[in-house]
Design brief:
With about 240 residues, the protein is an alpha/beta fold. About 40% of the residues lie in helices and about 15% in strands. It has a single domain, classed as 3-Layer(aba) Sandwich (Rossmann fold). It contains eight helices and six strands, in the order H-E-E-H-H-E-H-E-H-H-E-H-E-H. The protein has a six-stranded mixed beta sheet, with helices on both faces.
Length: about 240
């Protein structure tokens, strides 16, 4: 048994108390303003969809231009006319996204980016269930949306979140690492699918005021890593798009 799993049983009263305290006191940040769908750039068309939780939604910045959607779209707009769509809900787990797949726009899409996992960790979703739901999600996105290239965002280093205090920080951080490692098993099942893991360290200097969500610099670095992944894994940035 992993040390953190054993520690949960020993420290359960303290962990529950820390969790309850955080829910009462955490700073509630608003959703960023700005369009969640639209068109940007010039050139051949490329359809982009981002799905996920509050990090996909851009919580932590004031405008979508600073969020993941705006950061990725603006970089792709150097090459394409980007038709972008965002479908994200704060607090969403992987299973929640599976439940509203039928509300997504009709495909095909060229590129889909997912941002999920932290809420699976904080809401104590079992690891096996998380992995199964991630596999199902990627499979459904590819089948439903015309086999886009799917970028699965790795879990952030939760053990670096300023909001969290030991021992909750250690316990959640270790589980997040475990969930993140399993994403490699998810993407290995599919062609045209890969995990992106930004290398940027987290702290009060680059996270939002709540100590839990990304700040503008984190979203920018995340977008840079997605573009670097696309350059290395696809022809999206140096050839014709998938859709004509």
């Amino acid at each position: 048994m992993a040390w953190d799993v054993a520690a949960r049983f020993v420290l359960m009263p303290l962990l529950l108390a820390q969790g309850a305290y955080l829910r009462r006191t955490v700073l509630q940040l608003p959703d960023p303003t700005g369009a969640r769908s639209g068109t940007l750039g010039s050139g051949p068309p490329l359809r982009l969809l981002i799905v996920g939780d509050s990090s996909a939604l851009g919580v932590g910045v004031t405008d979508q231009r600073e969020a993941l959607l705006g950061q990725v779209s603006s970089r792709l707009a150097d090459t394409y006319t980007v038709h972008y769509t965002l479908k994200a809900v704060s607090g969403a787990r992987t299973g929640d996204v599976l439940s509203w797949l039928d509300t997504l726009p009709e495909g095909p899409f060229d590129l889909v980016i997912t941002a999920l996992g932290v809420n699976d960790v904080t809401k104590v979703v079992p690891l096996r269930r998380f992995r199964q739901r991630q596999i199902a999600l990627v499979g459904a996105l590819k089948a439903q949306l015309g086999d886009p290239f799917v970028v699965v965002s790795g879990l952030p280093p939760v053990h670096q979140f300023p909001l969290l205090r030991p021992p909750l920080r250690w316990i959640l951080g270790e589980q997040a690492r475990r969930f993140d490692r399993n994403l490699d098993h998810v993407t290995a099942r599919y062609t045209r699918c890969a995990v992106v893991r930004p290398k940027l360290g987290l702290g009060r200097h680059n996270m939002a005021a709540d100590g839990f969500h990304p700040g503008p610099a984190v979203y920018a670095a995340w977008a840079d890593d997605i573009i670097a992944l696309l350059r290395s894994e696809t022809d999206l940035l140096d050839g014709p798009p998938v859709t004509a």
